[in-house]
Design brief:
The complex is a heterodimer.
Chain A lengths: L1 H34 L2 H30 L10 H10 L5 H19 L1 H10 L1 H13 L1 H13 L1
Helix pairs in contact in A: 1-2, 3-6, 4-5
Chain B lengths: L5 H45 L5 E2 L3 E2 L1 H28 L5
Antiparallel strand pairs in B: 1-2
Helix pairs in contact in B: 1-2
The chains are: A mainly alpha, B mainly alpha.
Amino acid sequence: MTSLLLSRVLHLFGVYVAFAVCGVILLCMVTSVLSFSLEFLVVAGLLSLALFSVLLGPTTWRFWKQRHSKSITQGPPVLAEAIIYSTSSVKFRESILGDLDEMYYEDLKKFGRRSAAIRYWSQVPGFVLWFLKRASGITFIESAFSRKFVD
Amino acid sequence: MSDQPPSERSVLRPFGRAKNALVEWSAHTLVVGGLLVGIRLIEYLLHALWTVDERLLFGTIPLHWLFDAADLAILSGFLTYGVVKVLQVYSGRQSE
């Protein structure tokens, strides 16, 4: 019974500290709105950031560690991976990342980490351009013009 | 299967749930009490350090409002989250 009580106390401590921080954040936000002061907004933002880091940090870290479970230092460049992930088409995202991972590990074996990372990064501009092209609707305009000329 | 007779089990089960609910309620009370005392101590410490009656934060609001806001949030949490958790444990929807 004592161990159960202790475990519940330890668990609830974090919850109630989060409640207290939320109360301070709320006060800062209300004050910043009522007195038009930027300082309280900054304090509220920093406190929110700290709270969310503490709450979501462990989960994010576990996810990242799981993704790079083989070797964190030898995996593909994280930033390039994130750019490709966010700019690639949802439909083909998994297969694209899988192919690029395969390419990276092959290059790693053949040429070393630096060359593999450079080759991985060299894919990024293509994905960004393709994303911009899709986002700006150039494909649609091109097809519309071509149809007009054909007609 | 338990080796107790059914009549005895049906008598003990509500007591078991009540015991769990009591543990839950004690845990909430201990944490809330500890945090309120801790906040009060920090407030007294700051007051002793500055020796100014009404310290204003960024020249706008009194400093003790921050502590009052934290107290209010904790008590509100206790009255809502705490009560819900204790009722959940008593009703047996939660094993803890």
